[in-house]
TrEMBL record:
Compositionally biased intervals (Polar residues): 318-333
Region described as Disordered: 311-345
Organism this protein belongs to: Tateyamaria omphalii
GO molecular-function terms, A-Z: guanylate cyclase activity; nucleotide binding
UniProtKB keywords: cGMP biosynthesis, Nucleotide-binding
Descriptive protein name: guanylate cyclase
Statement: the UniProt record of this protein carries the keyword DNA repair: no
EC code(s) of this entry: 4.6.1.2
UniProt-listed NCBIfam families: GGDEF
Length: 345
């Protein structure tokens, strides 16, 4: 018995994933790590082939045949869930009919970690499983670090892209974003409305109350424009006090008139700033891009610009829908593409 006890103690240290079988094939001793695979099901006293299904060699169905295959690699699978596959090696024990099945390094390291939470403490110090566990842990740590880095990079890219398309003062889209939105609608072949908006008397606010007041006015204007348009519309600040609104569902001049009227009405109200009052208004010119026509987007924007100048020269604080007749009335006032004149002169 002393020799048998010494053997069990040695196996518990050297290969804690093992079983010792008696002559009838019943488990008489089980290593602590192997028992961890089924902590609620005692293995001692059960037949080995009731616990494990022998997948290969296929011809073995009895304990005598199993003992005869001593030294042959065994492919086993636990019969109950989870049906973990393991590999083992059977050798004769000390006494007649006794067998020792060593399963160390026979379990998938992924299964050992994910299904059973085995650690290096569950294996012998020289077992190669420990090295594999370290590799899995290192890989998991590296993948987690990579995932976090990718998330940070993705967040940084999104933030950088958002910043590249955003006017920092007002939070509106900028000219670059507007060009992107317009190009997208052109590619889709959709008809959309385009409004050019220029603030009236804004230069006077800057000159009399300072740039802080001007910034406050621009932020207020941006909020009003967003509130008076829909989520599908695009509001962009394209210059100091110049704005453009793209309206994909406003496919006629009448549809834009209501939006423009509300914007002008709200922007005509005094805007308080630090005990002072900022007074502005807005002039609007609108045009329709129709993919069926031969007009380019640049030409339609020029049409909206011509309509805007008609509003400016008509008394400001009003909106005008483009018609070809406007060019005859404004040709002496507006240069081609009309973007280079000082509107607050």
């Amino acid at each position: 018995m002393k020799q048998q006890d010494a053997l069990m103690q040695a196996l518990d240290v050297l290969c804690p994933m093992h079983v010792i079988l008696g002559p009838t094939g019943h488990v008489v001793h089980v290593g602590a790590t192997l028992q961890k695979l089924r902590p609620d099901a005692k293995m001692v006293g059960r037949r080995f082939l009731e616990i494990f299904d022998l997948k290969r060699p296929r011809a073995i169905t009895t304990m005598d045949a199993l003992r005869a295959a001593a030294g042959t690699k065994l492919h086993l699978q636990l019969r109950d869930a989870p049906k973990t596959e393991v590999k083992g090696l059977l050798v004769p024990g000390l006494s007649e009919g006794q067998s020792i099945v060593n399963l160390s390094f026979g379990i998938s390291v992924v299964d050992a970690v994910s299904d059973y939470a085995l650690t290096s403490a569950d294996f012998a110090a020289t077992d190669l499983t420990i090295e594999m566990l370290y590799l899995v842990e290192a890989k998991s740590a590296a993948m987690e670090a990579s995932r976090k880095l990718n998330l940070r990079l993705q967040g940084a890219m999104i933030a950088a892209e958002e910043q590249a398309f955003t006017d920092t003062l007002t939070g509106l889209k900028n000219r670059r974003a507007m060009d992107h939105v317009v190009a997208r609608h052109v590619d889709w072949g959709t008809r959309f409305g385009l409004m050019q908006i220029d603030l009236d008397w804004f230069k006077a606010v800057n000159d009399t109350l300072g740039h802080a007041a001007g910034d406050h006015v621009l932020q207020t204007v941006a909020r009003v424009m967003v509130e008076e348009t829909r989520d599908s519309d695009t509001v962009a600040r394209v210059g100091g006090d110049e704005f453009v609104i793209i309206l994909p569902h406003a496919k006629s001049g009448e549809a834009m008139e209501g939006i423009g009227r509300r914007i002008i009405e709200r922007l005509s109200r005094p805007i308080p700033f630090q005990g002072e009052v900022c007074k502005i208004s807005a002039s609007i010119g609108s045009a329709i891009y129709d993919p069926v026509s031969e007009q380019t987007v640049a030409e339609v924007m020029d049409d909206a610009d011509v309509a805007l100048y008609a509003s400016k020269n008509g008394g400001r604080g009003q909106q005008t829908s483009y018609t070809p007749a406007l060019r005859g009335r404004t040709q002496n006032l507006v240069p081609p593409m009309g973007r280079d004149v000082e509107r607050e002169a």
